[in-house]
Specification:
Four copies of one chain form a homotetramer. Chain A is of the alpha/beta class and 279 residues long. Chain A contains eight helices and 13 strands. The first copy, chain A, folds into two domains: 77 residues, Alpha-Beta Plaits (2-Layer Sandwich); 195 residues, 3-Layer(aba) Sandwich (Rossmann fold).
């Protein structure tokens, strides 16, 4: 019986890579349903994503690919299936509720294993979906203690990705390093504008005519990880900072859920501080 | 000395196509700078566009590719160079002037060989660019006579593409068939809405909140050729039909010049009534 | 104690209207927080919306306004407060769930009194919000019987507005006339394109590069009522009809919830087949 | 004979302003074609723009308005007519050529009196339009000397507005103060992101998915004047810094020409570091 696989390869560019890879696929009688390649000219790095149908032995395929590819190539081969995610939130619901609904109605390529928050205000809403809600207050504990507690809960679920759906606390480098390129954040503004607190107040005071949102992988520099997706929305002088924040919620949940979807579909490569998106 | 080539292939899909094509390229020591493939699942048709650098004998390359590809495959191999175009207009300047400027400042991958119009009102402006302007009035002649005259002028220039930059007369099937998939039109609305005359009056009377423009190849059904690019712009109740048309001009010239650019860069395949765009 | 009122006036245009209206407001010591006017030049009709703060006798204010305005002027004065709505759906959840969440988290200026559907598939989800769900099957009953049953339920709730959140049955003229300019529909496409069934299949087959959604008041011509809001989203050849429909859901729920919000905020006038939107 | 006037008023907000202003207009038998008001809630400042038709004595009108308005109110009354502008450029043509064409075809509400540049590369193109081109090199002269020379040329033309259409030198505070709220700049990015040199290189290195442009009045803080208009355009990993700059040109010229148009139509108020736009 034929199955669908996703093959992700990235390595230093050299002549003949596509030929060498596809010759292995052809020999193993895989059919290529969709294929995308990209070579970053800056650093001469090669990226390829293939959707394959076939019934071959995947271990053998991996070992054959390794033989024809540069020694430090990254090769990932996986069956098409739902990923597992854990969501971190603070008090705002809009990104969380968007993801809960999409998962509930089977429109998100993921199982939401748990929601963790430093407040308990969203507990009641999350319970409607029969998903565990973990309230881990940051009060009266050190940042390290707080993160240790959260990491303990996360590790119990072994998620593929951690989604910061308006989690308003800065994660330590230690935390981030444990989940490198596995944490996705929605930033409440059009990065690199309005870094830091109260972006809609900043936007209002600057009198901007457009606001935006940015979904990105988290690295250990605040607001500086690889951008996955961005979008913007027009505003005008009639909107105050509160109304701008309301418009911002629409664009934030749209950008986060779509960025997450393409990550879950294995369509995003991280290359240094940038992403290659085969959407 | 290495040169840059663009290779366009489309044929019925079958297992191993990418492997077979890239094996030929590898044997001829071409380096693939950029590669895009797509398989249309509806009709199982395969499309591939490659940017290659190399110094090999292109005739030999073509003959080797033919050997490995299905017998009815379309294979086009060309050096990266400017295309030649002829522009048809009526009275409105905005799309024409956008293309003239881009060509003048070397930002359009094309030489504008001539401008043909059924009015002489844009003559003076075109002359500023030292480009031949042919005034072919449609008055007191039959449609066939008018088109024959225009076709005679066009054939003198042997253009790669004909651009209808707000040419407001309907071309006959005979005319179109002579330049199949070589005529690009800008439609003054968001197809398939508002087909026919006075689209901005129609848009105004319908009270729409968005207007758009569509660039498409012309086939023998009015407003029905394969769409290359579309875009939209917000309008509101304060704009009358004339002001909507003014907003429309901005989006029309933007859509046309960008659609033309990707066609000139050999990034567009036509597949029946649709396009595959590797932008 | 001061209260906030919204005053909506429309009438034939004549010299001095703003002066006459504001003189009455000034005499009654109302403060104008926000004021918008528009004169439709086509039919010389005047529209004005004022947000007022004051503590005056509203009956007296109405009677004074009537004295200075043309005899057939429409004058509506209301306290700023939540409106009541009833939602009709079929099987698709995305617009409904968006409205449920906004209402649940107090971000929609409305109470959702009930949800009515011709299928029971969304019952379980609606119950999470403790909102009555009425399943009224259209099977084995005539269209008139079906509508009569629905109208009976609606009348029980006396809603200010009825929202068709992907209700896939065409309402009769009789139904619509009972709620003139009170029924808001989301149309699954960029009107006037792709009228009728299966718009995303139509869009896919036409090979469009942009899809859209339209929120409009329902009148007795299918897909022809006054447009409140529209928006579009880019698509490309890689998306099939199903994936286009998924992209369409994002834009549909965004357009519907925002159109509804401006209606609930009394920011929309209907003028024949168009709307005047003071957003 | 009736004429069309634009009346602009701004002053501290107080009860009855609209009433008082429109009573004067009514007494002078002006008809209000279009009226827009806005009260900034932050600083309780009132803004009103009226398009009037009438034949009254405008001096008398001004004096009557002064009587009913707060003593420090700004009142501007002008006939609807073309404004005069001078354009400053460096080497890039795209914003300049857009404005030249719009003016040439009577689509810009302005006369372009002259173009001034610190390079002579655009001389030939500007001459096509029979508009004076002043080449004022910044080489071998101090910044003060350079600006003095430019100011001397500008003052000869007494323009209503100065447009920086990609003028790449920073103007001194002295220069700017002489033309307060009269200098309009196009910023090659989505402010406040990517302030400073090489914004598209910065954008590329940051791996953004959207680029933008900002038109703003110039004040004495670099890139910090009141924003008139902004817009954005999607980019992706396939575009390098040069290609992003090309996409940026499209959005820059669109944003600048539209911002300039609404300024020329007297639709923009400056309020501190923000604008009120009645478009």
């Amino acid at each position: 019986m034929e199955e669908i696989f996703t093959l992700l390869i990235d390595c230093n560019d050299e002549k003949g890579l596509i030929y060498k890879i596809t010759s292995v696929l052809f020999l193993h009688q895989f059919n290529i349903i969709r294929n995308d390649e990209y070579v970053s000219q800056e650093d001469k790095h090669f990226f390829m994503r293939s959707e394959l149908s076939g019934q071959s032995n995947t271990e053998e395929l991996m070992s054959e690919l390794k033989k024809v590819l540069p020694v430090n190539a990254n090769i990932r081969l996986s069956k098409k299936q739902k990923k597992n995610i854990v969501i971190l939130v603070t008090k705002e619901h809009h990104c969380l509720s968007e993801l809960l609904i999409r998962a509930y109605f089977n429109e998100l390529n993921a199982n939401i294993l748990a929601v963790i928050s430093n407040y308990d205000s969203l507990n009641e809403y999350v319970e409607k979906y029969n998903i565990p809600f973990h309230f881990v207050s940051h009060k009266d504990v050190s940042r390290t203690e707080h993160e240790t507690e959260i990491l303990k809960i996360i590790s119990r679920y072994s998620p593929d990705y951690i989604v910061l759906a308006k989690y308003m606390r800065i994660l330590s480098s230690d935390f981030i390093r444990q989940y490198e390129n596995k944490i996705i954040n929605i930033h409440h503004s059009f990065l690199p504008a309005f870094i830091g607190a109260n972006p809609y107040r900043q936007a209002f005071e600057r009198g901007v005519k457009i606001i935006g949102a940015t979904a990105h992988f988290v690295n250990d520099q605040l607001d500086e990880g690889p951008i996955i997706s961005q979008n913007t929305i027009a505003v005008d002088h009639k909107q105050d900072a509160i109304q701008m924040a309301l418009s911002g919620k629409d664009i934030e949940k749209y950008v986060l859920s779509n960025a997450l979807q393409i990550v879950l579909d294995d369509k995003v490569f991280v290359n240094g501080n940038k992403t290659i998106v085969f959407d």
